[in-house]
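Anyone up for a design puzzle?
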């Protein structure tokens, strides 16, 4: 997957901003905070749209169990064209109201989401790059409680549960946050699967001097255990379903574990086979 380096681009913007004469103290604090978050965060690159797997129901998350990050500080980077989801599909719900991204007003293809745990909350800092002026915008912080963060009694027509979120400044449109918060929860959702792992991935046939010059020091990828795959036999009888593709999905086992099941072909001729398709994201640790 292409390394976006959005967090580094954002930091350059912050450093330039800190040199602005008579910069307001609150703005200086915001820019400095982003620089610190960049340095502390393990960085993940998500697919276009920010959803590695868009499980709308977030079935692997149990809101009665504390929500945890894979590292103390993480940064998610992704590109969004604004057309990855249907227009009538809200990116989230706030106070019982659906939140939609207004793609007609501004194009913000570059997204960065910083997250960290603090005092019973997942504190989130969101930044996006706007194409109209080539500038980065940093939103005031928001936070998700680590317990009871989903309202499963409040389900959107598309099947998404409500997300309980606290906002630092109430004047900022809530819709500006929800796509990024949804990407964070989708990311944590897939990590709950017991057969999904983070593995270290070093560049091949690269000397130490070249490694030192790379944009990030260490990379990782999410991998899915090969011992659990989606296979289904076919008898060829008149009741057998037509050959079709079963998409990758999350399965809850009887013992409570959640696993990721790879895509598979059902009733493929005399039997079924696993489709060799990777579901992986790149991660770098600065």
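Challenge accepted. My sequence:
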């Amino acid at each position: 997957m292409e390394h976006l380096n959005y967090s580094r681009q954002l930091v350059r913007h912050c450093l330039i901003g800190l040199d602005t004469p008579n910069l307001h103290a609150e703005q200086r604090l915001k820019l400095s905070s982003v620089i610190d978050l960049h340095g502390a965060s393990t960085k993940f690159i998500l697919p276009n749209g920010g959803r590695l797997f868009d499980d709308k129901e977030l079935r692997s998350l149990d809101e009665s169990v504390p929500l945890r990050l894979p590292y103390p500080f993480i940064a998610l980077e992704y590109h969004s064209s604004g057309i990855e989801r249907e227009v009538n599909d809200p990116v989230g719900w706030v106070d019982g109201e659906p939140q939609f991204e207004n793609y007609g007003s501004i194009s913000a293809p570059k997204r960065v989401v910083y997250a960290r745990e603090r005092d019973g909350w997942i504190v989130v800092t969101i930044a996006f790059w706007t194409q109209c002026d080539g500038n980065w915008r940093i939103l005031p912080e928001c936070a998700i409680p680590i317990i009871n963060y989903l309202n499963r009694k409040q389900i959107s027509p598309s099947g998404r549960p409500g997300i309980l979120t606290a906002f630092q400044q109430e004047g900022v449109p809530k819709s500006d946050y929800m796509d990024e918060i949804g990407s964070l929860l989708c990311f944590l959702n897939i990590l709950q699967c017991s057969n999904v792992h983070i593995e270290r991935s070093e560049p091949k046939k690269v000397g130490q001097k070249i490694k030192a010059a790379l944009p990030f020091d260490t990379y990782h990828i999410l991998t899915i255990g090969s011992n659990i795959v989606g296979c289904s036999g076919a008898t060829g009888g008149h009741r057998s379903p037509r050959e079709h593709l079963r998409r990758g999905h999350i399965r809850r086992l009887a013992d409570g574990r959640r696993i990721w099941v790879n895509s598979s072909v059902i009733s493929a001729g005399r039997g079924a086979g696993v489709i060799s398709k990777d579901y992986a994201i790149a991660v770098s640790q600065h």
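A detail worth pointing out: Residues 193 and 259 are 4 Å apart (CA to CA).
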